[in-house]
From TrEMBL, chain B:
It comes from Accumulibacter regalis. This is Binding-protein-dependent transport systems inner membrane component. Keywords: Cell membrane, Membrane, Transmembrane, Transmembrane helix, Transport. One of its GO terms (cellular component) is plasma membrane. Belongs to the binding-protein-dependent transport system permease family. Pfam families: BPD_transp_1 (PF00528), BPD_transp_1_N (PF19300). The keyword Transmembrane applies.
Amino acid sequence: MPLLRLALLSLLSLLAACSSEQNEPYPTAERGKNILYSAFTDRPKHLDPVQSYTEDEITFTAQIYEPPLQYHYLKRPYTLIPATSEAVPVPRYVDAQGGELPADAPVAQIAHSVYEIRIRPGIRYQPHPAFATDSAGEPLYRDLSREQLRAIETLADFPKTGTRELVADDYIYEIKRLAHPRLHSPIFSMMAERIVGLRELGTALQGEAKALPAGAWLDLDRFPLTGVTRVDRYTYRITLRGKYPQFAYWLAMPFFAPVPREVDRFYSQPGMAEKNLTLDWYPVGTGPFMLTHNNPNSRMVLERNPNFHGETYPCTGEPGDEAAGLLADCGKPLPFIDKAVFSREKESIPYWNKFLQGYYDASGISSDSFDQAVRLGVGGDVQLSDEMREKGISLLTSVRASIFYMGFNMLDPVVGGLSESTTKLRQALSIVIDQEEFISIFMNGRGIAATSPLPPGIFGYLEGEAGSNPVVYDWVDGRAQRKPLAVAKQLLAEAGWPDGRNATSGEPLVLNLDTTSGGMGDKSRLDWLTRQFAKLDIQLVVRSTDFNRFQEKVRKGAVQLYYLGWNADYPDPENFLFLLAGSEGKVAKSGENASNYANPEFDRLFERMKNMESEGPRGAERLAIIRQSIALLQHDAPWIYGFHPKSYTLGHVWLHNRKPTDVGNNILKYQRLDVAQRQRLRQEWNRPVLWPLAAALVLVAVLLPAVIGYRRRERGTA
Amino acid sequence: MLAYIVRRLLYALPILIGVNLITFALFFVVNTPDDMARMQLGVKRVTPEAIAKWKAERGYDKPLFINGSAAGVGVLTDTIFFDKSARMFAGDFGRAEDGRDIAREIRTRMGPSLAIALPTFVLGLLVTVSFALLLTFFRASYLDFWGVVLCVAMMSISGLFYIIGGQYLISKIWKLVPISGYGGGLDAWKFLILPMAIGVISGIGSSARWYRTIFIEEISRDYVRTARAKGLSEVTVLFRHVLRNAMIPILTGVVVVIPLLFMGSLLTESFFGIPGLGSYTIDAINAQDFAVVRAMVFIGSVLYIVGLILTDISYTFVDPRIRFN
């Protein structure tokens, strides 16, 4: 039976080949290496620090670029520490005549704030062809012809690379790039209000860009920026209009990371952009990692920067960090990992299953896999499922520095304005929409009900009774209890809508909610919401539309109620309370205040608060102002404060030093892997099941003789 | 034949202009240049000034179709439609709204798309034709009956079910191949085998049933009876005679699809993490990237026209009676 022998031989070869991890999605050569595996869902649009603003992008850019400041990885509340700078800059204040003012000078006297930043000498850039020089010290790859570029497809095709020291000029160059007319930096308009001379620079550059041929290099060094000057090789000075304490937070974002002039010039050569050889595709930095492979459709790879200046793991944190093992690596050099491979996973199911197989080191929890990963205890506490615990997976939860809310358009004649009747109507609705129930039903408990715009972890957020919203909650037996429906009905009646009808005309109260929803999942949410309004006999009309039309309606003030959210740019109350400042009115000023709320008292408090520091002698005063502002917002109820989402992330037992953070994004350097343990567990979890293959081979072995026999008989007959 | 092809290609020109016009009109009915700018610049801290700058930079500050303020032919040429469409006919797709080169992106993504689509297409064709011939061979038997029932059942199941079920069984439970991903070189096979198998299996139901109908009709012809009377085996009759004579309807459905294989498959590529062209258009629509949308629709139209021409040509190979006139 030669056929049977062949089948058995094939089976044995297959068994030998399928010894372990046949389902491994990575090259075998990577096994046992110090590589972190992660995934991304949406491809990053921009990696140029002047344009990049979204979470998808900062996952990469924060590991590559180094702004002067960064957040302490472990301390909470979030604390700024130096990254490339020698110290966190303390602003000097000067008056209109240029005279020095004390730190506590009244805001009205402060004409300018001056930030002087000194960077540490000896920091070097990652290897890059833009720094490669010939024997005469001239750039090797400048003024390349299209012919010379023909053989070049990626940066790796340049045979030589070089590096150079980071200097103050690189930071100045990047700040000038904020005004670059072809780059469209999202913060240009805002920074042009603050940085002296930035707007003028933008105008000058726009004129120059028009005069130049399309795509030609715009040499920013030819244009002065009066508010940003070089003091010496390692020091630069930024002059802002007025007082802006939040500016220090911006100095921790990639917008203020260094970009060397020669890199900008290198990428501006004709023919580069056609090959995606741009700073937007291949970032250049001094950070712990460099992007060595960029295919945002499938895989992006960060590798250790051999020129990284060195940094050590923090030795202090917040209480509980030591017990959690987060200080075990105190003083050890960073980064711990050699490489991070990010694979694109557009669908949640493959992502989740690969995490369970050990092929991703950490994962979020999608709603599809929530029940498999987590179970809620009787008291609402969250526990890992038995399956996760058996695998040694750990769960990290944290409340995010975000808020989702339902806003009222304060320009609307029915729900808007600051009159007593409309205020009471909004207060009644704030009570009747049960956010706790929403979080429980639709978010698997992954959130906490908001009582003000400020999320936990932000200065001014208060726990307990002090932080409760007295308009919506009663404080009973040490916990907040939503006010009864009768209170909401009473408020509604006082607002002139008893039982949901106009006290004068008898017309029913019909409110319109504009939303971008429309899918199957959203229908149940909107049905739930309609039922909440119906408790007060108010009819809710849901006007679903696409995102563009929704935005347009909000811009024009053509909405009555709407849903929106906000993620913190930086951990300061100003970054949330400005969403309700009159100066940010959406209709009047094209700002971020979509509710068009304008209360002079709140605006006055906000103007005072925003120019104060949370630390130091005026911290208590600032806190008092924030509490006053919040009390005002709770009374006026321009928003129904929805919820602050909770993030749940899972990590394998071999991944160490994980701590949730919302604003510090350069976290990759702190992660440590136990590679041997990962390899052992992956092998254990991924032993292939071979009987289906064996069964298939047996079936073939059985059927084949029958087919051959049939063929022989047919031929014999013919 | 050359004259025929040239004539057909000339006919294609007005079709392509029409397709381009309709794509343009439909896109801008839903999205304004302001919407596009907002999508590219993000929703945070976007000022009207930034939007105006973005539009001017990319030429979206002009009128859509008619420029009343221009003189002469500028009335038609100094418009967004002309600016964005004319270059495509010269094969210049320009840049996506995020600045990346579209032609390069298409070249990069075409390989992975073809790596899945081509083998799936060829294998699928072989398997479904063979299966349909098997059913024909056992026609009017229980095997045929249950085969047809199986086909109906298979064609009634959503493609998504095959994908999720296949990933669950083969990759998660049996752990035989990776659930998703893509690799080049020798590593590619382990990523391609599952999507290919799922592609083939999910296509069997509808295709095999259709081919069986064609074969059953063909098998009752006189020439088949003659072939059998000559003493040819049933396999020879089916594969050499019936299949050859049933080629016209098969080619009608099959050849037109071949050029479109370049366009990839949205669902398969999305679930298996294949970096192909399938999801490129959908991503572009979601990102309101008109440059990519118009390029992909244009390429799709060109490929479809090429497919139709190839179909016509293929008829002449399987049936010598057909002439190009």
